[in-house]
Write a structure and sequence with these properties.
There is one protein chain. With 290 residues, this protein is of the alpha/beta class. 46% of the residues lie in helices and 11% in strands. It has a five-stranded parallel beta sheet, sandwiched between helices. The chain is globular.
Length: 290
């Protein structure tokens, strides 16, 4: 099953109005069994493409997840990447910056975690927190040690957007392909998931009191996401607004985005050449005799 993902893509230079974009869509699956079959097919091909990516060893792929709390980032990563060889895939979750991280520029901590050639890297939150959380809470800028003359709020966000575009352009020119996912969950669905985390004992550990505090800034976050995606969605490194009220639909869409991104890469298994093949045949003969 192939999902048309262009309808979720944020076009370069286009305005983004999240209130006009769906958090729920008509189910892409007919039943739970159908969902599992679709996802299994996607995961199977993804595993094959990841093996090819690793063997080709010229490209790397970075998948970035951003969302409001309880939007399903963890479960999406778990289900979509379930069949990928962990040797060629690393997941990094970025929490509140440490003192050491605050003593560097805002891109430093994530740059260190970028995927190597042949690998898939997944960022559960990323450098985009610096134009989302920090924009909603500009007081956080004061704790980053940035020179006072560089903290003009009329310029700082545009300058950070520019730094991000420059970074992603640089990565693209050096073989790292990027897809950025915003899991678009409704405020009502977030409330339902928060209640579930409170009501079910085995989910209590997932609930963070700070998440409830951030919910009060929902409108400000939506505006920050809109401005961020408008400024940083490019042809080479696009944003996708994925409806996330239904986790199964979200996982199918995300897996299709990853597949489409990897399918576009011009990859092949290394050719040993005539001399290499001759040597392999000689070794084969030796093994047959052993």
């Amino acid at each position: 099953m192939t999902i048309e993902i262009d309808r979720f893509r944020v076009r370069e230079g286009k305005r983004v109005r999240l209130k006009d974009l769906p958090t729920d869509i008509k189910d892409l699956y007919k039943s739970k069994d159908d969902y599992e079959l679709i996802l299994a097919d996607h995961v199977r091909e993804l595993s094959e493409l990841q093996t090819l990516l690793y063997a080709h060893h010229h490209y790397s792929f970075l998948l970035i997840f951003q969302a409001m709390d309880a939007a399903g980032k963890d479960s999406c990563i778990k289900h979509v990447m379930s069949g990928v060889n962990p040797q060629g895939c690393l997941v990094h979750s970025f929490k509140r910056p440490s003192g050491e991280e605050r003593d560097h520029d805002f891109l430093w901590r994530t740059t260190r975690a970028l995927p190597e050639r042949g690998n898939i890297g997944i960022f559960n939150r990323s450098y985009y927190e610096e134009v989302l959380v920090v924009k909603v809470h500009p007081e956080f800028l004061q704790g980053q040690g940035i020179p006072v003359e560089l903290l003009d709020e009329k310029k700082v966000w545009d300058e950070r957007y520019r730094s991000i575009r420059d970074l992603e352009g640089h990565l693209n020119r050096n073989g790292t392909r990027i897809a950025k996912i915003f899991l678009h969950v409704s405020k009502g669905e977030q409330r339902r998931r928060f209640l579930k985390r409170i009501d079910e004992a085995d989910k209590n550990w997932k609930f963070n009191v700070e998440d409830m505090a951030e919910r009060k800034y929902w409108k400000q976050y939506m505006q920050a996401y809109e401005e961020c995606m408008e400024a940083t969605s490019t042809k080479e490194s696009p944003w996708y607004v994925v409806p996330a009220d239904d986790k199964k639909d979200a996982q199918i869409v995300v897996s299709q985005i990853v597949l489409d991104s990897l399918r576009k890469l011009k990859m092949s298994f290394p050719d040993p050449g005539d001399a290499g093949r001759k040597k392999l045949l000689e070794i084969r003969k030796e093994l047959e005799k052993a």
